[in-house]
Amino acid sequence: MPRVSEEHLANRRRQILEAAAGCFARNGFHRTSMQDIVKESGLSAGLIYRYFSGKDEMILAIVGEWHTSRAAGLKAGDDPLAAYLGLLRDIAAPDAALRRNLGLQAWAETVREPRIRALARQGVDDQREAFGDVVPDAMVRVLVALYQGLLLQASWDDDLDAEAFVAAVRGLVRRGLPAD
């Protein structure tokens, strides 16, 4: 029997995570069953269990990817403010509804699941590191709160003007930065 390539394994894992993410975004983590994920993926339950021990492992993988992509976005380029504002635009984009739903559910899981709490904490620490000594720590925490608030508002407010929000944040940060 021929061996499957690493690329095939990675693609199959991606297929499972995308199916799980779709189910989780629509129904929430706890209302999604493994059978829902099996149906969404078009794969057998046995094959899915070869890749993941269950829903919790899938949730951790999805949340881990979320934070990895956010951290990479923050480290893009030499201007941490521009990178942060880009993250605000990304999370408020019309095509980001799935990511927003998953993000909200992940934050809710932080009170129940220590491993997800650790990932969320790492996300805050990544932002603190990205700004370094350029922005005081308290201001970075305000920026984290603004990101979280925008994610929440963009999830339920179809009239939200994301560009006006980003412009307001840019102005607030520039006024709050120490003089050179």
Summarize the structure.
With 180 residues, the chain is mostly helical. The chain contains nine helices and no strands. The chain has helices at 6-27, 34-41, 45-51, 55-74, 80-92, 97-109, 114-131, 137-156, 162-176.
Can you give a write-up of this model?
This protein is mostly helical. The chain folds into two domains: 1-52, Homeodomain-like (Arc Repressor Mutant, subunit A), CATH 1.10.10; 54-176, Tetracycline Repressor, domain 2 (Orthogonal Bundle). 76% of the residues lie in helices and 0% in strands. Helix 5 packs antiparallel against helix 9 and helix 6 (97-109) crosses helix 8 (137-156). The longest helix is centred in the first third of the chain and has 22 residues, at 6-27. 25% of the residues are buried. The model has no long low-confidence stretch (mean pLDDT 88).
Taken as a percent bin, the fraction of beta residues is under 5%
- First-residue to last-residue Cα separation: 66 Å
Biggest beta-sheet profile: none
Percent in helix: over 70%
Total of DSSP H or I helical runs spanning 4+ residues:
9
The gross shape turns out to be: elongated
Structural class: mainly alpha
- What is the count of distinct domains? 2
Mean pLDDT: 88
| SSE topology string | HHHHHHHHH
Q: Under the CATH scheme, which class of the largest domain?
A: Mainly Alpha
Q: What is CATH's topology name of the largest domain?
A: Tetracycline Repressor, domain 2
Q: Which residues sit in consecutive blocks of at least 5 with pLDDT less than 50?
A: none
CATH architecture of the largest domain: Orthogonal Bundle
Radius of gyration: 18 Å
Tell me the number of strands: 0
